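User: Show me a protein chain along with its predicted structure.
Assistant: Here is one chain, sequence first, then structure tokens.
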Amino acid sequence: MLGPSLYDARMDEVELESRVRQTLSQVISQEDTLLSTADRQRIQAEISDEILGYGPLEPFLRDEEVTEVMVNGYDQIYVERAGRLHPAAATFSDEAHLRRTIDKIVGAVGRRVDESSPMVDARLPDGSRVNAVIPPIALDGATLTIRKFAKDPFTVHDLISFGTMSVPIANLLSACVWGRLNILISGGTGSGKTTTLNVVSSFVPEFERIVTIEDAAELQLHQEHVVRLETRPRNIEGRGEVTTRDLVKNSLRMRPDRIIVGEVRDGAALDMLQAMNTGHDGSLTTLHANSPRDALARLETMVLMAGVDLPTRAIREQAASALDLIVHQARLRDGTRRITHITEVTGMESDVITLQDLFLFDYHAGVDEDGRYRGTVRSTGIRPVFLQRLADEGIPAPAGLFEEWA
């Protein structure tokens, strides 16, 4: 009854959805089987989701409380709500059903996944990030992970209400961005680095030209003068790859006031440090690491991946000169994302990059009756070296911010 109309390019999504639901209603009503209203609606919804969307995943993609969907196998789906993982009742009918859904997802964005290319990273049209792995790499059957893209990105007020940061910390980060400090946001997987980067990037003044570079576009900046760049994987013939490093190099020719790199993972770290050291101050990026000190060690390793024969001391001098502030974020045991360190990079002593913690998360405050941490990020009492730089720019630091806590 639907036939070619499913592939009619002249029909928009709303019209197609209406046509599918109307046809399904007619078909079900013609069946001799007696169905309750609830069963009729359930069957209609399941078939509609299969035709128009991604089958059993569709309810989770529509649910605004779900932030991530993890398919460990055709019969095992988990979702993340409020920072906690929950098993889902929904399943795929079999492995073939899951594989068809994966093909549908990656095919919609011009990608493919098969035995010769068993892993794929992609971005859905709505911005959600998708990772799919199939056999023989995935030993127990195909897996799929979808990190949903927030239609309404979190604001600084949201992160304050979540407890990720406090009002004084937000004011400090805003002052640091206005003062054109180079900021590295570090943290583990799923700690909320990109969300915090998006919020911190929102402090960049409207009159500045921003170039963003990402593997999969997630940043949602509302300033007017923004140029968004995205990497591209190699094609089937092994050609056409555009890396983060390529884009960082190219961005220097685009007259940016700020360069924001969604995440540095490889030799692009060298180009990012060189950009920060050659007049592109006020740049921002993120990095996977377990602590601020670990972030510097990982940065050093990634610079070596650039294939440039640099002495270790020269790399550390570059990092110490380029970076001003490290904001470290963690996903705590209670599922919340919190800023746990705000650390200043102060220079070099001998062959070691010197750091000083300005703020630390207060784990000693314990947990409440629901197991949630009571602590907040508290000042260590150390006044940062960069305060004079902010003062020279006419940017005052929030009063009393650096008073030590008992």
